[in-house]
Amino acid sequence: MPSKQPEHTGLVIDPLVLVTGGLVALLGVGILAAFLWMVPNAAVRESQSACRGLGGYNPLDGGNNHGSPMLCPGGQPCELPIAAPDFTAIDHTGKPVKLSDFRGKVVLLNFWASWCGVCKTEKPALTGMAESLGGDDFVVIALASDKSWSDVLVAIIQALAPGAALPERSENGDIAMPAALAAYQQALPHGIPFKVFLDRPKGEDTIGQIASSWGIKAVPESALIDRKGNIRAYFVNKRDWEAPVAQTCLRAVIDE
Predict the structure, then answer these.
(1) What residue numbers bound the domain in which 64 lies?
(2) Residue 6 within a domain
(3) What tens digit of pLDDT does each residue of 229-248 get?
(4) What per-residue string of b and e applies to 188-208 under the rule 16 or more CB within 10 Å gives b?
(5) What's the gap between Cα 153 and its chain centre?
(6) Which of 26, 96, 181, 182 is a good FRET partner for 169, with 20 to 30 A between their CA atoms?
(7) How many Å apart are CA 6 and CA 82, to the nearest integer?
(8) What is the pLDDT of residue 39?
(9) Alpha carbons 176 and 165: distance in angstroms, whole number
(10) Residues 6+ apart with CB under 8 A from 152
């Protein structure tokens, strides 16, 4: 009597189930793609809204808002972003430093001067922001329109350590650099969280040569520059850099 072969049963898939499952999977992929598309766009909108609320998206027009032939080609009004002109400033040791040396980092470039009272009132907020946001991918640069480092150091003491002892001036009004440096180190023994470079004015001018080449006629002004060296926002006059809207504007560019 011949043996009976065992019956083999396979998995039977209902075509309707297969089609439905495929549609569900496709829908899931579509939702995920839409989500991934919406998240960065939402972040961009948030940063634009924050920077606009901070007054950083005004056209550069050469008038009240700012502008120069170096920033806007042909001196015509232009919209952001635009390339930040490179420059060479001087550090406290006399070493030349270029803006392009910081390419790959987000830079907040703050134009100021020791003789500018408004600039001094802005420095505490600038310091607080630099402490909270500073890191390997973000740097704050304060470019001083001054003829001497002594005046710069004294102004920093006045802004960030009010009440600290200041060095005496000579009969002609100058302050010796060793005395200014000693007073600075005593008043601010841990230093400051931003970099300061010197932008010496030409002749009897009060605005530094670099600031002048950017079309700046009064300080403070600040430029937010991305990793590629493009100005993403520009601020005329002082800002509260510790305000939530300012933090959002800066953080959005840092996190890109």
Answers:
(1) 54-254
(2) no
(3) 999 999 989 999 999 999 99
(4) beeebbbbbbbbebeeeebbb
(5) 23
(6) 96
(7) 78
(8) 44
(9) 15
(10) 114, 144, 146, 196, 198
Residues 6+ apart with CB under 8 A from 118: 219, 220, 237, 238
Q: How far apart are CA 140 and CA 15, in angstroms?
A: 62
How many helices (H) and strands (E) are present in the chain, helices listed first? 6, 8
* Domain membership flag for residue 242: yes
In CATH, what number is assigned to the domain containing residue 198? 3.40.30.10
Could you tell me the two tokens for 20? 């439905």
The span from the CA of 256 to the CA of 251, in Å, is 9
Give pLDDT, residue 203. Answer: 94
Q: At 107, which amino acid appears?
A: V
CB 167 within 8 Å of CB 182: yes
Q: Which DSSP helix (H) or strand (E) runs through 44?
A: helix 15-53
Q: Provide the phi-psi class of 120: left if phi over 0, else alpha when psi is between -120 and 50, else beta.
A: alpha
In a domain, 13, yes or no: no
- For the chain, the domain total comes to 1
| Beta carbons of 193 and 242 less than 8 angstroms apart | no
DSSP state of 75: G
Contacts of 246 (CB under 8 A, 6+ apart): 50, 54, 129, 239, 240
In a domain, 49, yes or no: no
